[in-house]
Amino acid sequence: MSSVRYVVLVLREEYFLDEVPDEYRHFVSLLVAHVRRSHPHPLELEPGDGEYICDRCDGDIHGARWHCKDGCDYDVCDACHQLG
Ligand SMILES: [Zn+2]
Ligand SMILES: [Zn+2]
Q: Is the pLDDT of residue 18 over 90?
């Protein structure tokens, strides 16, 4: 499996970073962190009721939640969204 394939699986949360072979783990962790900071899809505002964790700051989301329009499991709190 290629390193990029591991990145996709970790981003989809089908794979944990711990499960990535040692020789790829550093590269995969850097790329996953980068993509999570700069998500490639547009985000839309949804009610934040429920248990959501911000993918940028790892904090609980209360109130406004910015969710990926393409349906990824990607949520951002309002404070992080305003930072751009
Ligand atoms: Zn946040
Ligand atoms: Zn997305």
A: yes
Ligand 2 centroid from CA 64, angstroms: 18
Task: For residues 65 and 63, give the distance between their C-alpha atoms in angstroms, rounded to a whole number.
Answer: 6
Q: What is the mean pLDDT of the chain?
A: 88
* pTM for the model: 0.57
**Cα–ligand 1 centroid distance for 83 (angstroms):** 9
Domain coordinates in residue numbering, the chain = 3-37, 43-83
What is the rounded CA–CA span in Å between residue 5 and residue 40?
16
For helices 3-11 and 22-37, the axis angle rounded to 10 degrees is 50
Distance 8 CA to ligand 2 centre (A): 11
CA distance 82 to 84: 5
β-pairing, 64-68 vs 75-77, is antiparallel
CA 38 to ligand 1 centroid distance, Å:
13
